[in-house]
Amino acid sequence: MIKRKLFWKQIFVFNKKYFLAACCVIACCIVILLCFPIALLWKCLLALVVAGTFYLSVVSLVSSYFIYDRSDLYKFNWLKKIGVDNETIFNVYSGYSESGHLLNSAFPEKNIIQLDFFNAAVSVTDSIKIANKLGEPLEHISIDYRNWNIRASAGTILFMQSLHELRTMEQKVWCLMEATRSLDPGGTIIVSEHLCNLKNFLIYGPGAFHFFGSAHWKHAFAHANLYISSEKSITPFVKVYILSPS
Question: What is the reported pTM?
Answer without folding.
Answer: 0.85
